[in-house]
Prior knowledge:
Chain A is mainly α. Chain A is built from ten helices and no strands.
Amino acid sequence: MKERFSLSDFLLAFLIVGPAILLWELSVSWLNLPVYILPAPTQVMKTLAANLSLYSSASLITLEEALAGLALGLIAGASTAILLGMWPRMERGVMTLAILVKSTPLVAIAPLLTIWLGFGLFPKVIITSLLTFFPVLVNVLSGLRSTDTAILDTFRSWNASRWEIFLHARAPSSLPHLFAALKVTAPLALIGAVVAEWTGASGGLGRIMWLAYSNLNLPFLFGAVFVLAAMGITLYSLVLFIERKVIFWEET
Amino acid sequence: MNISVASLHHIFIQQSDQPLQALSDINLEITSGEFVALVGPSGCGKSTLLRILAGLLIATRGEVYLGGGTPSEATTRKQLAWMAQNPALLPWHTAYANVAMAQKINPRDHPTGAQLSPAELLDLVNLEEFKGAYPFTLSGGMQQRVVLARTLASGAEIWLMDEPFTALDELTRESLALEVLRLWQRFQTTVLWVTHSIHESVRLADRVLVMSPRPGRIFAQHTIPLPRPRDDTSAEFQKHVRAIREDLSQR
């Protein structure tokens, strides 16, 4: 089988990211930028190190919201796709509703949900699932329809039921598309959680950002951004890793 | 299980062009246990005819009976197997699981091999050592061998084969065709074999039907009484090949 994560891949990633951070560091010192305009990466790291426990407990909250929202969006999106796959006649109606949800600006609903549901976990999970629902729905639906027609003909020649065709042919064929959706939605879920926290939360990285922003404490703000970026990369890599285990029959 | 087709016509309605008459007045009687080849140039409607027999396409007009039932009835009884260039194996299943799937869906007890285990069927097509292999690790020829085992596993008595080995190299194609012959003799199924190779049709079939295009119709047939295995260098073999070639060139 094909070669997976290699050392040179990591090296390449470092070669791209490393100089960018170096340039940032150097331009801050050369241009003498004050810390309330742009803090140097080293200073951000110092702030991070000094407040490690604060950041880690906040990230756990955000991660919990993001994962719960992602799971909910995934279940809702995939079930809707399966429903539409089984009964294509419902597509127009359901898709119109889905697009309506998709095109409603989240910044408009987020504060409302906070007002209705409070400062806890629940409104964040809802926002995140709304954000992740649509990409999952669209991808899984096209995945269910991407099944090789020759395979479908074979199942029909055995007089297989719709359920058997779904279980043995359509569902496995849609898995690569499901993972494509997950690669997009996993980092998106973090954004959803943070945006939801921004509108009012008792904890989380979004709340740290909001507090830092109100005090113009930019190193603190960037610290949260760094943590968020690291979490996003980790989640994405995790999805990639699982994908390569599950979908062993396809090049990715 | 016999195949009977009477005054079959098929017209494709296309949006942009004129309606296309794909098949015109096809009459066909294939007795149970017969191996019949259908030869003709590309676009003569061979595949269309086969798809109609398989119930994948509904004919515009005419009657089609397989073992006394319509194609859809034959499908309900799991009497038909369809084999084409695309092996249509499930890529996420091993060779074994792919063969087992044909028995798992609508299990059917029948002499055609349905009562043999998937392992025995894979032995039968010389894939003893590849039971646990995934299709993407197998060569094209081996994948088609898995399909043969799967076809046997389904228990179908009629094999509709639409140029199944055309995508393979000549050596593999030849050995697989002989494999089909061997399995057909052992399980006494009825085979309709579509091909564009005259040589292949004379090599395999009891009877060769010759088709011409636009509109697709059967205009000649040749019975090949040669005993098997057939020697393709013999004078009689060549005589049949020549006769079919002459038929085709006159059109």
